[in-house]
């Protein structure tokens, strides 16, 4: 039976472009907010666009959804991919519009990008390099991806930083541990680079 990828629909993402990109590389996708569907998925993708607070509240507003994700990913070991704010939600907390608890899967917090140089624009928007660390794993590759964000993931554990990018200083481009991967950039907007990443995610057996 074909593997099923659960794409979490919690009202906070460019859901259809992520779905289309996954289908383009051969995924069988269930766009879902149903905890039972999440519990039986082979892989889980969490998208997200907008503020950390709105996304976190949207996710927690669906009864049993966070618990089902934790059960399938943290206990069951299903490969997980968080995209943009979906990656940021892995943090302990976000500091946008006050302090909001995250999922706490990757230690750290999501803070505003500091504009240290007037020539460096915030939000960080457009194509930029993805530079791998020693902890990148098999899904990530060096290349250029499309970014759009005003807040960044300040990860506490260097061993969970999988890739960096430079925008007036280093910003975390990806976090990873075990079966969990989060990317700050948008694979679905990153053309061939992004599609190749999603294809590798579908093949990933952590």
TrEMBL record:
This is Imidazole glycerol phosphate synthase subunit HisH. IGPS catalyzes the conversion of PRFAR and glutamine to IGP, AICAR and glutamate. The HisH subunit catalyzes the hydrolysis of glutamine to glutamate and ammonia as part of the synthesis of IGP and AICAR. The resulting ammonia molecule is channeled to the active site of HisF. GO terms for molecular function: glutaminase activity; imidazoleglycerol-phosphate synthase activity; lyase activity. Its main location: cytoplasm. Keywords: Amino-acid biosynthesis, Cytoplasm, Glutamine amidotransferase, Histidine biosynthesis, Hydrolase, Lyase. Heterodimer of HisH and HisF. Transmembrane segments: none annotated. GO terms for biological process: L-histidine biosynthetic process. Gene3D superfamilies: 3.40.50.880. It catalyses: 5-[(5-phospho-1-deoxy-D-ribulos-1-ylimino)methylamino]-1-(5-phospho-beta-D-ribosyl)imidazole-4-carboxamide + L-glutamine = D-erythro-1-(imidazol-4-yl)glycerol 3-phosphate + 5-amino-1-(5-phospho-beta-D-ribosyl)imidazole-4-carboxamide + L-glutamate + H(+); L-glutamine + H2O = L-glutamate + NH4(+). CDD domains: GATase1_IGP_Synthase. GO terms for cellular component: cytoplasm. It comes from Pelagerythrobacter rhizovicinus.
């Amino acid at each position: 039976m074909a593997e099923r990828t659960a794409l979490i629909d919690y009202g906070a993402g460019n859901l259809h472009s992520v779905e289309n990109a996954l289908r383009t590389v051969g995924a069988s996708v269930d766009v879902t907010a149903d905890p039972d569907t999440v519990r039986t998925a082979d892989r889980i993708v969490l998208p997200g666009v907008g503020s950390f607070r709105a996304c976190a509240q949207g996710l927690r507003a669906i009864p049993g959804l966070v618990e089902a994700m934790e059960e399938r990913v943290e206990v069951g070991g299903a490969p997980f991919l968080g995209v943009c704010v979906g990656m940021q939600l892995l943090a302990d907390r976000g500091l946008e519009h006050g302090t909001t608890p995250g999922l706490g899967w990757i230690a750290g917090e999501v803070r505003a990008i500091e504009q240290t140089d007037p020539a460096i624009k915030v939000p960080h928007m457009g194509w930029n390099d993805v530079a791998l660390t020693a902890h990148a794993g098999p899904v990530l590759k060096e290349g250029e991806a499309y970014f759009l964000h005003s807040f960044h993931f300040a990860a506490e554990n260097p061993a969970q930083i999988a890739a960096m990018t430079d925008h007036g200083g280093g910003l975390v481009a990806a976090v990873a541990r075990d079966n969990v991967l989060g990317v700050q950039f948008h694979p679905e907007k990153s053309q061939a680079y992004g599609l190749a990443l999603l294809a590798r995610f579908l093949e990933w057996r952590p």
